[in-house]
Design a protein that fits this description.
Helix content: 10-25%
Mean pLDDT: 79
Low-confidence stretches: 2-24, 84-106
Oligomer: single chain
Strand order of the largest sheet: 4-5-6-7
Order of helices and strands: HEEEEEEEEEEEEEEEEEEEEEEEEEEEE
Strand content: 35-45%
Number of helices: 1
Number of strands: 28
Shape: elongated
Length: 239
């Protein structure tokens, strides 16, 4: 009996989570000959050809929609959503506020010759060579992108996404799409909780900690770290 009740409780929890998940993207409804998104009529939608694709996306014969709004320049005949890649929550250390949480669709979407990120066209992106690298990063044959924006001055050669917002290429290191000036890519590695280092320097959230001793630096927990000279919290010396 206890096992059965436990199964019921787990099932109820899963249904509740699924409902919250669906609500986070809004909901399309077809009522008679009209389409609605979150109760608001989508006036341009053709109900005869309308299809809810999930994650806020939908299409009919003429248009592709995100959250009930038309996505311009997107061909509905070739547009698809891969349901294996749902939303992902990514928590990044933030130099000002501790930790911040950002939600985005886990993966750029390629529709014909157009690349989209969160419903917006990625300007200049070449769909034929475009690759989603994870953590908001992507690249085509010539350019690196972060959250749908091009990252200037960073080479695509050997570009590798690490985690916690960090990435590197042959010569460059970036944090959340911003180049870290002075970081040595060849020796750069993550430590933990937003901290990273190369052969000469320690960094927190992409900014160099000038006082840190790289050889003795250790990350503790909860944003704390130390070396033989100082203790740190979120990259700053505790005085």
């Amino acid at each position: 009996m206890k096992s059965f009740m436990r199964m019921i409780a787990v099932a109820a929890l899963m249904l509740s989570a699924a409902a919250a998940f669906a609500q986070s993207y809004g909901r399309y409804e077809v009522r008679r000959d009209r389409v609605y998104f979150n109760g608001v009529e989508v006036r341009t939608a053709d109900v005869r050809w309308f299809s809810d694709l999930g994650y806020g996306y939908a299409k009919d014969r003429n248009h592709v929609y995100l959250n009930g709004q038309i996505l311009p320049y997107v061909d509905p005949s070739s547009f698809k959503v891969d349901r294996r890649y749902g939303p992902a929550s990514n928590v990044f250390p933030d130099k000002n506020d501790g930790y911040v949480q950002g939600w985005y669709n886990d993966g750029y979407i390629i529709a014909g010759n157009t690349v989209l990120y969160n419903g917006y066209v990625v300007t200049g992106a070449r769909a034929s060579s475009f690759k989603d690298l994870g953590w908001g990063y992507a690249k085509d044959a010539y350019t690196i992108y972060y959250c749908g924006r091009s990252v200037s001055g960073v080479s695509v050669n050997n570009f590798k996404v690490l985690k916690d917002g960090y990435a590197r290429s042959t010569y460059d290191v970036v944090y959340m799409g911003e180049k870290i000036h002075g970081a040595v890519a060849s020796s750069f590695k993550l430590i933990a909780d937003g901290y990273a280092k190369d052969a000469f320097s320690v960094f927190y959230c992409g900014e160099k900690i000038h006082e840190a001793n790289v050889n003795s630096f250790k990350v503790l927990r909860g944003g704390y770290a130390s070396d033989i000279f100082h203790a740190y919290y979120q990259g700053k010396i505790i005085r």
